[in-house]
Amino acid sequence: MTVAFWCVLIAIILPYACVAIAKFSGGDYGPSANHAPREFLAGLSGWRQRAHHAQLNSFEIAPAFAAAVIIAHLAGGASQALIDSLAVAFIISRLFYIGCYIADWAPVRSVVWFMGVGLIVAMFVVAA
């Protein structure tokens, strides 16, 4: 397995880390909340709500990242080291994105999001 493939696994796990922060950091998620977790998450506010929103965005971007990694591998136009570097940079951008989302740094978050999308596009470009 390449580093880039391991990064795909990390991208798949990141949304679950976000929802864990949203659910379990307040001490109010118990058995009753587990019967309707979507209702519980919809009722959150503040930074916990933003953690939930970061979860949703992480689920949205993961398929595009996974596709970019797989296509870059299959196309063979770029070195493995370059693909791995772009994948690691994407995961770092996602970690910053999640941190910015939770901290409510909206302008910075948007810039970091565009950087992440740019890294996905870069994988296609270098593989061409």
Structural description of this entry:
The chain crosses the membrane at residues 110-127. Pfam families: MAPEG. The chain has 128 residues and is mainly α. The protein is 84% helix and 0% strand. It has helices spanning 3-24, 31-34, 37-42, 46-75, 80-103, 106-127. It is elongated, with a radius of gyration of 16 Å. The chain starts with a helix and ends with a helix.
Keywords:
6 helices, elongated, 128 residues, Four Helix Bundle (Hemerythrin (Met), subunit A), single chain, mainly alpha, membrane, transmembrane, transmembrane helix, Membr-assoc_MAPEG, MAPEG-like_dom_sf, 84% helix
CA gyration radius, whole angstroms: 16 Å
Ends: how far apart? Answer: 22 Å
Question: Residue ranges: pLDDT <50 for 5 or more in a row?
Answer: none
State the name of the first-level CATH class: Mainly Alpha
Can you give the mean pLDDT?
A: 95
Q: In terms of structural class, how would the helical and strand content be classed?
A: mainly alpha
Number of strands: 0
Number of helices: 6
How many structural domains in the coordinates?
1
InterPro entries: MAPEG-like_dom_sf (IPR023352), Membr-assoc_MAPEG (IPR001129)
Keywords: Membrane, Transmembrane, Transmembrane helix
Main location: membrane
Pfam family, one: MAPEG
